[in-house]
Alpha 1,4-glycosyltransferase domain-containing protein
Amino acid sequence: NGNRWGHNGPYLVTRVVTSLPKQTRDDIKIMPPAAFYPVDWGHISSYFSSPSDRGHLKWISAKIIQLEKEAYAIHLWNKQSRGVNMEEGSIMHHIINKNCIFCLSARSDT
């Protein structure tokens, strides 16, 4: 039931892991939420903004380093980010330009 909270997230992981043979479970590593959800939904729009001053640029640079070290993916919280424009120099601009395989052909500014 995809309408229930967590059905396709944490409960899905639980269902899959418990369906595996016991000896197989020992090889599974459950990552912390920050590995896939490093940005809180309430702050996602700030990841699309270009630096406004030197302090903001320093924060953006540090955040990019942190994301590259700790995150495997970045959930963009579509409900909050779908209307936000990605500005040049933003965290998302850097991440997408460096890592996205197919995004360059889909960009509207090229």
Notes: The radius of gyration is 17 Å. The helical segments are 10-19, 22-25, 54-70, 78-81, 91-99, 103-106. The mean pLDDT is 88. The CA atoms of residues 46 and 90 lie 8 Å apart.
